[in-house]
Inverse folding.
């Protein structure tokens, strides 16, 4: 008998379910050509992910970006893009996070999430426009009972 899926695994499954609907947008289809990736680090530090598409080179690149996004969210607790805004405006001291400025990802798509018990989950998607990368993670998160940290 298999054990029930963790919330992180449910999130990956929901992103997988939503993924085809995003390919109907011509801009996102052109960007991804059906290739993308998602990464999640759960509250225990376990890593979960999925690669989409048949172009291994393009999918590998998306997976690398998703991983950079998720590790930055996991390290900082801030969404990608927002973290950089706070640092470069002088509102946040980046020295406490162990990420050198040249290593900031900056692209949107890394999202901090909270489970119902308040524990932290970092999630990211890469393959579409940044706003759509965020949207697919947030939609999937809401569907599985996670909430956006600060949102």
């Amino acid at each position: 008998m298999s054990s029930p899926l963790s919330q992180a695994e449910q999130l990956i499954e929901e992103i997988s379910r939503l993924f085809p609907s995003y390919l109907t947008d011509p801009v996102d289809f052109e960007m991804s050509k059906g290739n993308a990736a998602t990464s999640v680090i759960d509250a225990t530090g376990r890593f979960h992910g999925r690669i989409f598409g048949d172009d291994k080179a393009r999918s590998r690149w998306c997976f690398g970006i998703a991983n950079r996004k998720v590790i930055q969210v996991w390290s900082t607790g801030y969404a990608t893009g927002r973290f950089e805004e706070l640092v470069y405006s002088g509102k946040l001291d980046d020295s406490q996070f162990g990420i050198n400025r040249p290593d900031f990802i900056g692209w949107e798509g890394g999202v901090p999430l909270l489970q119902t018990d308040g524990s932290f989950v970092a999630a990211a998607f890469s393959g579409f426009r940044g706003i759509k990368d965020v949207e697919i993670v947030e939609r999937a998160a809401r569907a599985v009972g996670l909430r956006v940290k600060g949102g």
The chain has a mean pLDDT of 94.
